[in-house]
Amino acid sequence: MAETKKLLRSLAGETQDVPPVWLMRQAGRYLPEYRATRAEAGDFLSLCYNSDLAAEVTLQPIRRYGFDAAILFADILLLPQALGADLWFETGEGPRLSTITGAEGLNALKGKDDIHDHMAPVYETVRILARELPGETTLIGFAGAPWTVATYMIAGRGTPDQAPAHALKAEDRASFEALIELLTESTIEYLSQQVEAGAEVVKIFDSWAGSLKGEDFTRYALEPARRIIAELKSRHPGLPCIAFPREAGENYIGFARATGADCVALDNSVDADWAAAHVQVDGCVQGNMAPNLMVTGGQALIDETKRIKAAFAKGPHIFNLGHGITPEADPENVHVMLEALRG
Ligand code: CP3
Fold it and tell me: Which CATH class name applies to 6-342?
């Protein structure tokens, strides 16, 4: 059956006059209604595990803006927690986790099939959303890519250069690779359950892919994505997959073909004309406006929306930012962008 939902049509390779649009982190602190619901939940993690409230914040930006896709409200760091790591968020600073420094920490983690009790509220959020979303809105499930999740598990926090993960890779490759393997396999189980619950598309966020170079990129960014996508598609034939190897640069070329992804998401360091020539030749691309324009707005926001739309107009495209919308964004600027895009 031909796809009727706008986002699924682009993922199936269709070129549309007006591309579908959604925003990374579209449920977030820039929205007053999100801040109110988070306060009701208590804190960010309680919100992630409260299925009714997580579904509510997922729906808020759909009601306000009519985006073509809703992304499940959760976090890539719920998976380490399901595997047994401690996780908490320091206000104003970001995530903290118990650290994996070698074989001992690794052996204390649970197995790939032991995550589902912990993740039950997330699957329930997906089920609520599958029921409640408008018929034209596509539901996206997601997980972090093994490398990106590993960088947080090894450092115990976000790091600008992922040095602790690179160090473990150099000094104890067996433990490092065992962690990537565990994350690859548990990500397959986690995403597969999201699809069973009603996710129509899955997206794999490799936010730190850009710090992997040469052979490391192939082994730890490309290969895990390829395995996850291949296994998901064999369990769920036709499932569209979006890969986001952020700041991969030249490694964006051929990534969709090599991994089997239906779409690659481009970060905003990538020139749109270059990406149209070198990446969109393989199929759908998503992106890639600079998030800061949602803060500054004005004519520059209108011009840049139209420039990116035009650059990708000859092939399948999903309009989005090159990274998440920030807490400082002005909610009115989202309307300005939508007006410039949809006319
Ligand atoms: O709306 C959506 O996009 C869906 C929900 C979503 C969140 N995080 C909610 C969130 C998604 C898809 C993510 C992905 C995620 N989480 C990534 C990959 C994408 C990226 O941004 O590179 C990463 C690296 C994380 C880990 C993470 N979560 C960090 C480093 C932080 C702290 C930084 C920050 O922005 O505060 C979070 C917290 C987080 N995840 C928030 C949200 C809405 C803010 C929490 C709050 O409300 O206080």
Answer: alpha beta
